[in-house]
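quick one: NAI bound model?
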Amino acid sequence: MIKRLAIIGVGLIGGSLARALRAAGAVGEVVGCGRALPNLEKALELGVVDTFTQDPAEAVAGADMIFVAVPLGAMRGVFETIRDHLHPQAIVTDGGSVKGSVVMDAIGAFGTLPPRLVPGHPIAGTEHSGVEASFAELYHHRRVILTPLPETDPEALARVTAMWETAGADVTCMSVAHHDEVLAATSHLPHMLAFGLVDTLARMRENDEIFRYAAGGFRDFTRIASSNPVMWRDICVANREALSAMLARFGVEMTDLAESIRHADGERLLEIFARAKAARDRYLDSAR
Ligand SMILES: NC(=O)C1=CN([C@@H]2O[C@H](COP(=O)(O)OP(=O)(O)OC[C@H]3O[C@@H](n4cnc5c(N)ncnc54)[C@H](O)[C@@H]3O)[C@@H](O)[C@H]2O)C=CC1
Ligand SMILES: O=C(O)C(=O)Cc1ccc(O)cc1
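yep, here:
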């Protein structure tokens, strides 16, 4: 049971956690904190938070659990603002999509990694932002990755694990570096492909006509290109090393595919498509 939960950044991710914990009766009071007043007023009106403030230092006062769910570029500033206002037993965790940058931001702000800081990442979301997009079931049967460090307090880790499980999630732990490499491949690269494809087509002269004749495959593939540009700029910058490596690798594979097409190498094309179909079918089976 969390007595006082401070949510810094009451958007899709922060708002959904607050809703889930409230629905489970696992939280006493929820204090929301953010920069945009209309979003905080909406959070209050929707019953996602009990009170709100625009000052993170005020939000964390007396809180036993603090969830930071702001864009990655705002993490360090939030850590610096809350640093001197945390209760000694308070646990700080976050939902940022990259973990190496959050750990570096925490070390930069606190001087050393606080033992009661548990870096985390829910592998769940949508292309929508803001508290109005949040919903209590977002984390049901979805994975949450925690990346504790050797200095992380086991009791803090256990409490954050229990919090996510109460929200309906399955919790996995892994190292910061492994997290950032895996997510570069499975989440950050696909978002780059969607953004890149839609931008390329949008800049072609005939784009009105092209979009008019786009079929379901285009819609499925490009849904994530509607995601928040600020959030994705921050993810790219924060995970630039792993993402650049994945993009370079993918570029080589695309060049190979283009060559096979140019040479009408049907055998090679069948080999690539059959391997990809089998892999996706296996993924869907295991995700069921
Ligand atoms: N959108 C998604 O599908 C997922 C996002 N994430 C991560 O979760 C975090 C939050 O993302 P969303 O909830 O989607 O974004 P969002 O845009 O819905 O919510 C972010 C909130 O943070 C507030 N904010 C921005 N700067 C702030 C600051 N300096 N101080 C206090 N509040 C501030 C904004 O006003 C906004 O209400 C990001 O770090 C993102 O990488 C993680 C998993 C999935
Ligand atoms: O909308 C989708 O399908 C997503 O992939 C959402 C998402 C975005 C960022 C994350 O770090 C995790 C999940």
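The chain has two domains: 2-174, 178-287.
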